[in-house]
Amino acid sequence: KIIYTADVIEETRSYNGVERLREAALADIHQGCFTVMKEVLLFLINTDQPILGQTIVAYNAMLQEYKGGTL
User: Fold this and answer.
1) What is the CB neighbour count within 10 angstroms for residue 63?
2) Torsion 24-13-47-5 (CA) sign
3) pLDDT class for 70, splitting at 50, 70, 90?
4) Which of 3, 35, 40, 65 has the least C-beta neighbours within 10 A?
5) How many CB atoms lie within 10 A of CB 68?
6) Global pTM?
7) How many CA atoms does the CB half-sphere of 12 hold within 13 Å?
């Protein structure tokens, strides 16, 4: 989670919303990583880019972890 999140929010990144993601990650790395993953998925969808199956599996695992319940 730390490496994935750090890559997306590292200091040379300057896209719209990166400051909000940095704040989320600093407040709670687990919730921040989940927020980062959601934003990345939305970016991929909105730009018609492919999403690897492992990314969906990781998202579903985090969703279950933070929202509870089963998929």
Assistant:
1) 15
2) negative
3) low
4) 3
5) 7
6) 0.82
7) 1
